[in-house]
C-alpha cells in the first residue's frame, strides 16, 4: 500500500510537470475585482499586455466589481485550478475586506495562493478645484468648521481609498462623509465636477488629473514623499503625525494550481513588470519601479 501511494505521488508529479511544460496553450483569464478604469484595472491591462508577450498567449481581462471586492475573488477561488484563471489581488481585496465583510464566501489562506507582487505605491489626497482649501491643514480646519458637509469619494467600499479616508478622519478628528462608487473613474469625474470634495486615490489613476490641474493634489499617503510628486508633503508631514496608508497589489490564483505552473507565471510576471511600458505608464513613480525590478517570490 505504501509503495502504491509513492507510485501515485510520483505519477502526479510527472503529470503536473508535463502540464506545466505545455502551459499555456490557450488564453488566460485575468480577473479584476474592481471596475474598468480603476487603478487596479489600469495595472491589470498593462500587465496583461506584457505578460501575454512573455507567455505567448492572450491575457483576457475580466472585470468583476462589487461586493466590497469579494465577487472577483470568489470567482477565482472557485475556478478550475489549472492556471487559466488568475486574479489581481489588491490590498483592499486581500487585507481589508476580511475585516469589513462578516462572512466571506471563501477562505483567503485556504482557497487562494499568491503568484507574485506587482506594485507598491501611495494614495494621493486630492480635492476638487471647487473647494477653497489648498493644504491639508486648511482641509482639516474646514472639515471641523463644517462637520458632515464634506464628501469623500472612493472607488468602492473596502478599497484602500475608503480605508485611507477613514484613517484620516479618525486621526484628524474630523467628520467627513464617505461616498463609495463602483470604480475610481466615476469618482474622479465627480471630484473634478465638484459633486464630491476630496478623494484618496492611487497615484497611477489620478496623477494625470493632478498634473493637469483638474484636481488639486494636497499630499501623499506613504511614509515618504513620492518621487512622482516630490514637492507634495506626506499627510504626516502636512498635519496628521503618524499617518501612513501605503498600497500594494499582487497576482493570485486558486489553491491547487500545480507548483510548476505557479513558478512559470511568477517568472513571467517578474519579467513583465520590469518592462519599460509597465514601469513608466502603469506605476509612474520611482518607488513602484524599484518594486517592479525586485524579483518577487510567490512564497
List the total number of helices.
Answer: 12
**DSSP, total strands:** 10
Order of helices and strands: HEHEHEHHEEHEHEHEHEEHHH
**Largest sheet, if any?**
5 strands, mixed
Low-pLDDT residue spans: 282-297
Q: Give the strand content.
A: 15-25%
Shape: elongated
- Please bin the fraction of helical residues: 40-55%
Rg over CA atoms: 21 Å
Given helix and strand content, the structural type is alpha/beta
What is the average per-residue confidence, as pLDDT, rounded to a whole number? Answer: 88
Strand order of the largest sheet: 2-1-3-10-4
For the record, give the distance between the C-alpha atoms at the N and C termini, rounded to a whole number: 33 Å
Concise summary:
This protein is of the alpha/beta class and 299 residues long. 43% of the residues lie in helices and 19% in strands.
Polypeptide structure, described:
The chain is an alpha/beta fold and 299 residues long. The protein is 43% helix and 19% strand. It contains twelve helices and ten strands. β6, α7 and β7 (177-180) form a beta-alpha-beta unit. The two termini are 33 Å apart. The model is unreliable at 282-297 (pLDDT under 50).
Which structural traits does this protein have?
elongated, 10 strands, alpha/beta, 5-stranded mixed β-sheet, 299 residues, 12 helices, 43% helix
Secondary structure elements and their pairing?
Layout: H1 2-22, E1 28-32, H2 39-55, E2 59-63, H3 70-77, E3 85-90, H4 91-96, H5 108-111, E4 112-121, E5 123-127, H6 136-145, E6 151-154, H7 160-172, E7 177-180, H8 184-193, E8 198-202, H9 203-212, E9 216-220, E10 247-254, H10 259-272, H11 276-283, H12 286-293
Parallel strand pairs: 1-2, 1-3, 6-7, 6-8
Antiparallel strand pairs: 3-10, 4-10, 5-8, 5-9
Helix pairs in contact: 1-10, 2-10, 2-11
Amino acid at each position: 500500500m505504501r509503495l502504491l501511494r509513492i507510485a501515485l505521488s510520483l505519477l502526479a508529479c510527472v503529470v503536473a510537470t508535463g502540464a506545466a511544460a505545455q502551459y499555456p496553450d490557450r488564453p488566460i483569464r485575468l480577473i479584476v475585482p474592481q471596475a474598468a478604469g480603476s487603478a487596479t484595472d489600469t495595472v491589470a491591462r498593462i500587465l496583461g499586455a506584457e505578460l501575454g508577450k512573455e507567455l505567448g498567449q492572450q491575457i483576457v481581462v475580466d472585470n468583476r466589481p462589487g461586493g466590497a471586492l469579494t465577487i472577483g475573488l470568489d470567482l477565482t477561488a472557485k475556478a478550475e485550478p489549472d492556471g487559466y484563471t488568475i486574479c489581481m489581488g489588491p490590498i483592499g481585496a486581500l487585507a481589508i475586506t476580511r475585516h469589513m465583510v462578516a462572512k466571506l464566501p471563501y477562505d483567503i489562506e485556504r482557497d487562494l495562493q499568491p503568484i507574485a507582487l506587482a506594485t507598491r505605491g501611495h494614495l494621493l489626497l486630492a480635492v476638487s478645484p471647487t473647494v477653497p482649501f489648498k493644504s491639508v491643514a486648511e482641509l482639516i480646519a474646514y472639515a471641523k468648521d463644517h462637520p458632515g458637509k464634506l464628501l469623500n469619494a472612493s472607488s468602492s467600499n473596502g478599497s484602500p481609498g475608503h480605508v485611507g479616508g477613514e484613517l484620516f478622519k479618525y486621526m484628524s478628528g474630523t467628520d467627513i462623509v464617505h461616498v463609495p462608487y463602483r470604480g475610481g473613474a466615476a469618482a474622479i469625474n465627480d471630484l473634478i465636477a465638484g459633486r464630491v470634495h476630496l478623494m484618496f486615490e492611487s497615484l497611477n489613476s489620478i496623477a494625470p488629473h493632478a498634473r493637469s490641474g483638474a484636481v488639486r493634489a494636497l499630499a501623499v499617503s506613504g511614509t515618504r514623499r513620492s518621487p512622482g510628486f516630490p514637492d507634495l508633503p506626506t499627510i504626516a508631514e502636512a498635519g496628521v503625525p503618524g499617518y501612513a496608508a501605503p498600497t500594494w497589489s499582487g497576482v493570485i490564483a486558486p489553491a491547487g494550481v500545480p507548483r510548476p505552473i505557479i513558478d512559470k507565471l511568477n517568472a513571467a510576471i517578474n519579467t513583465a513588470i520590469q518592462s519599460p511600458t509597465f514601469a513608466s505608464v502603469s506605476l509612474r513613480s520611482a518607488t513602484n519601479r524599484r518594486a517592479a525590478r525586485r524579483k518577487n517570490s510567490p512564497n
